[in-house]
Every structure is written in C-alpha cells, then in structure tokens.
Design a protein that fits this description.
Radius of gyration: 17 Å
Number of helices: 7
Protein name: Chitin deacetylase
Order of helices and strands: HHEEHEHEHEHEH
InterPro entries: Glyco_hydro/deAcase_b/a-brl (IPR011330), NODB_dom (IPR002509), Polysacc_deacetylase_ArnD (IPR050248)
Largest sheet: 4 strands, mixed
Keywords: Hydrolase, Metal-binding
Shape: globular
CATH architecture: Alpha-Beta Barrel
Organism: Linnemannia gamsii
Length: 204
C-alpha cells in the first residue's frame, strides 16, 4: 500500500472534513468548496448524464452479490448493456483509505476479468472535492446519476413494494420524455444488484 500512496501528491487535495455515518451525514456548512453530490447534488466535473438525447445510462451499484449472475443473464438475454459499479470496503473517510480501497478493488477486477476500470462511483454518491481530487490523481472519472429523479430507490425494497419502485421509475421516464423537445441530454439511472428483490425490480 505504501507504494500506492507514494504515487500521489496530496499537497493540493482540498482540506475538507470528512462526513461520517452510514450513510454519511451531510455537513452543516455545505458550500461550493465542498461540492458534495450526496448532500447538495453538486457534481463538480463528474459525469451525470449521457451526451446524446434519448440515451439511457443503466447503472447498478453495490455488487457483485449472489443476485448479480441472474441479473447479468437477464440483461444478456435482453441484449441490454449496463454499467456496474462494484463495491470495495465502502470506506471513504481518509485519502489513504480511499487509495487503498480503489487500488485493491482495481486489482481484484483486473485479476477476475483482465480489464482495467477508469470510472468510479463512490458509495451512496458520497463524493466531495476532497475525494474527487484523490480519485483524479488515481486516474478515475467519477460517475454520478441524474439526481433523485433518476434514483430508483430500489435499495429500499424493504420499505417500498416492487410496484412502488416501478411506478416511481415510470414517472421518471414520462418526465424525461416530456422534456426531450428541450434538447436535453440522455440520462443516467441508479439501481442496485444487492439482493434478488433488486434484480426482480430491474427485470420488471
């Protein structure tokens, strides 16, 4: 891990107090200097939309889990492509831990698939300018999603029925479709492959 840290100059990383909790609590002094996606939907230079109109960026967070293979099979059968943001230790409290988590996850993905990844989504969208700065130094681009409207809330299946999750997303699609005349770009949605229930919602 020391050689990973030695690769990075932390001197110009913004000094921002890390938020704590699970999910992390928002700081009371949210500002443009902090630019926190989870708290105030400040995206900085993160990717938050698809460049072309009528393009849907389908993304899944939290895996891989035992539910993931079923989802992969379904997407393959439907000839649908999606982006999966795989979970490491879900710890972003300190830059040193960020580096270790990213590099170990990167190594695991490379060994399992032979592929290098260059896009990342911090857990729960908890990214601020401190985290962005470190991730850029590691060669990553942060990908958020289109905001609360495009978050399926499927991780709350214990609180919401599958039908409620589907209805929420159908409203999102209708809202997007009603705005396409305004030359808006494509959207990125956020779903999960944490549980079989999440996968069932995705298939519906």
């Amino acid at each position: 891990m020391r050689h990973w840290l030695a690769e990075i100059d932390f001197s110009d990383v913004p000094m921002i107090t890390p938020s704590s909790g699970d999910p992390p609590a928002c700081l009371s002094d949210i500002s443009k200097v902090v630019c926190n996606w989870a708290c105030d939907k400040c995206a900085g230079d993160d990717v938050v939309e698809c460049p072309d109109q009528n393009v849907w960026g389908l993304t899944f967070d939290g895996g891989p889990t035992e539910a993931t293979p079923g989802l992969l099979t379904f997407l393959d059968e439907q000839k649908v492509k999606a982006t999966f943001f795989l979970s490491g230790a879900n710890v972003v409290q300190y830059p040193e831990i960020i580096v270790a988590e990213v590099r170990w996850t990167e190594k695991a993905i490379l060994e399992a698939t032979g592929l290098c990844v260059r896009y990342i989504r911090p857990p729960n969208g908890n990214v601020d300018n401190r985290v962005r700065s470190v991730l850029k130094k590691l060669g990553y681009t942060v990908v958020d999603w289109g905001g609360d409207t495009f978050d399926s809330d499927d991780s709350k299946t214990s609180e919401m029925s599958n039908d409620a999750v589907k209805a929420r997303f159908q409203k999102t699609i209708q809202l997007y479709a009603s705005q396409t005349a305004n030359n808006i770009k494509g959207f990125i949605s956020r779903e999960h492959d944490l549980t079989k229930e999440n996968v069932e919602v995705a298939k519906a």
